[in-house]
Amino acid sequence: MFDLSGRVALVTGANTGIGQGIAIALAKAGADIAAVGRSAPDETGEKVRALGRRFLPVNADLATTAPIEAAVQAVESGLGPIDILVNNAGIIRRADALDFTEADWDAVMDVNLKSVFFLAQAVARRMVASGRGGKIINIASMLSFQGGIRVVSYTSSKSGVLGMTRLLANEWAGKGINVNAIAPGYFVTNNTEALRADEKRNADILARIPAGRWGDPADLGGAAVFLSSRASDYVHGTVLPVDGGWLAR
Questions:
Q1: CA–CA separation, 91 vs 86, rounded Å?
Q2: What is the DSSP secondary-structure string of 145-189?
Q3: Is 234 a catalytic residue?
Q4: Per residue in 150-174, pLDDT tens?
Q5: Which of 16, 59, 55 is nearest to 36 (CA)?
Q6: Helix (H) or strand (E) holding 242
Q7: CATH topology of domain 8-243
Q8: Catalytic residue among 145, 154, 172, 186
């Protein structure tokens, strides 16, 4: 039920971190991978191809919706119809709410929420037209559930991802499309570099994680494979935290 052989997965932001971990996990389960993003995913490509899977890099800056249609067409031309979409690409901006700028608000919302929806829409239209259905996984956050500090646009965007995931599940479940989300806890990625470099914040975060460590991107592999596979065919609109127990604390 967890076999993804013959499936095509489009993963955004797969050059490093969480996106790379998910792409490799899906490849291990049998999927071919298209990596869509603005940075060259060379390392990811090497690891996917080493597993015997096809790999297609597609350059697209998801700061706007402009490249979405061409990117989806490139994936279909290179690998075939898309069976799995992982909306992982995201950015973060940090500042006190009293000082937060409109530019930082717009930048984060455009990548983390607007492009996520319109990419899901572009892929879902094809899934519906073909009658094949498929799986869409959005990457939420602990800040889909909590407020956080100094990241007002990030928290707002990830709260939006949670709501959007539920709405799309309501609309598309009957069309054969499973829409779910993964909410990573505190992982070792570029986005958390500032937190890990802050001795006090790092210690405070670790003290709250029951598992006692930051997550590694590979820790997300099982959840991603589950939500991409037939094992989750009756799972719609759920958000699966992978957080070392953070939310249980």
A1: 16
A2: TS--SS-HHHHHHHHHHHHHHHHHHHHHGGGTEEEEEEEE-SBSS
A3: no
A4: 999 999 999 999 999 999 999 999 9
A5: 59
A6: strand 239-242
A7: Rossmann fold (3.40.50)
A8: 154
